[in-house]
Amino acid sequence: MDPPEAQPFVGPTLSVGLTYSWQNLCAQVPLARKSALGSCWSRRSSSPTLSDPGANEALNWPWRESGKVVLDHVSGIVEQGDVCAILGASGAGKSTLLNALTMRNVDALEISGERYCNAELVTPESLTAQSAYVQQDDMFIGTLTVREHLQFQARVRMDRQFNAKERMARVKEVIQHFGLDNCADVLIGVQGRIKGISGGESKRLALASEVLTNPLLMFCDEPTSGLDSYMAQNVVETLKNMAGEGKTVIITIHQPSSQVFEMFNKVLLLANGRVAFHGSRENAEGFFRSMNMIVPQYFNPADFYVQKLAMVAGKREESEAQIQQICDTFQSSTWGSQLSDKLDKNASPDASASQPSTRVAISKYKVSWWQQFSALMTRTYLATIKEPLIAKVKIMSTLVVSLVLGFIYYGQKHDQAGIMNINGAIFIIITNLSFENIFAVIMVFCNELPIFLREHANGMYRTDVYLICKQLVETPVFIITTTITVVILYWMTGMNPDPIRFLGALGIALLLTQVIVSFGYMISCIVPNAQVGNDISPVLILPFMLVGGFFLNNLSIPTWLIWLKYISWFKYANECLVINQWSGVE
């Protein structure tokens, strides 16, 4: 089946073409904290020219001594209608370059250089407004269908001038454009838990999510990763069709097939963080032929170029010498000089006067606070009611555990043994609510956090909107599970039968649950994943539990640990529930 043909865009389109260029991008992994001499120089006047192959060695760059160099004065340009592939061996700096171009995921690096859109210096906000970034790892809310996911994306990412009808029409159009009709109402799925769409459909969905806003500039990090040759060709052909509509496409790709390589009209070859070649696909073959490196007949040109630029095991010195020769030759070649001229023209102050500005960012967010809230509230509700870990497993496990504990503490009397057992049951309620809710929050929130970070970086919604919606949707679930625990244990144990005291105990338990859920959110934001969160949660909870007033008398707490009891929810909840139970009882 041939890839679907491009469809016209619904509503007004952006007719301004976009040329994206970058000059002297440097990136390094610092060995220590950044010092005054440990950063890349970002002034253009201080940087070596592209046509001077020995400039990097002639100048004793101070930033070389403070860390590992990943990008070494990389320059390039991609124009409207281009599909530019960034190629290179492993460790060449492909992903780092793409991150530097998109100004994302670079917290661990020191980066300098200049980036231009139509001869104007770009900022993260202006770039986000006119570009889309398809990252290598697909991140979706797996309990949503393909259509529900795209509808949410349309509600928060399309500009404010579009009404609800136009947004839904755009969703329908994009579904048809990417051939997602057959799976439009299928759950996206969660690997290992919920069966969903295939890998190829997932990649197309990631592209569809970004195309909704009709961006001028597309960045794709390994869009064919994990796909078979047919699906990889299908995805790249989709990108080529988008470039044919006037967009600018920049992608990193690993080992493209010869058919896929033929779809690129521009290539950028990286080796050891330097530019080995940048220009048209046809000129790449001519450049390597000029160095007596001829692509063999019936040989994939992409594989040939990468082999010539790779570090061969056991031949490090020879490989480094060959890479340096290729990079230096390109900088002094006709192709390197033409690139330098284009870059100077695109980055000159006069160029901006001849080209209309494409900087459209006024706010990071495309829609208002209320529109963000409405869209996110709908998605969070759909995701929550379909999530089996919340809607089914959590409620059923709470019911079973509460019944087991209820039978253990069943029918206590107000004698000495009964009083001790009732106090024990009170503390068991607190402990059960603590562990049960913290683990539930970590299991769900840790998996959603990377999605939130990516979507927030894309300017889709604010942090406060996300947390408010999550709290409003999940609070009823926590109310239900807390009520089940308190009702079963309170009456089966034989606690104070006064209805007012029961309501008081329930109210205290509900307030306690909110504290516990917030603590779970805090742990989820600190740990890298749910597994680590579940491992360290008991370690963090145990000290609070020990100073809670049940296992250890307050007067026996060591002086250097006395401060713990004042931030322990076990202490305050235990005191409140004990007073509620025994106050006025003879």
TrEMBL record:
The keyword Nucleotide-binding applies. One of its GO terms (molecular function) is ATP hydrolysis activity. InterPro entries: AAA+_ATPase, ABC2_TM, ABC_transporter-like_ATP-bd, ABC_transporter-like_CS, ABCG_dom, ABCG_transporters, P-loop_NTPase. SMART domains: AAA (SM00382). Keywords: ATP-binding, Membrane, Nucleotide-binding, Transmembrane, Transmembrane helix, Transport. It is a multi-pass membrane protein. Pfam families: ABC2_membrane, ABC2_membrane_7, ABC_tran. CDD domains: ABCG_EPDR. Residues 50-297 form the ABC transporter domain. Its main location: membrane. It is found in: Membrane. Coiled coil: none annotated. GO terms for cellular component: cytoplasmic vesicle membrane; plasma membrane. It comes from the Eukaryota. The keyword Plastid does not apply. Belongs to the ABC transporter superfamily. ABCG family. Eye pigment precursor importer (TC 3.A.1.204) subfamily. This is Protein white.
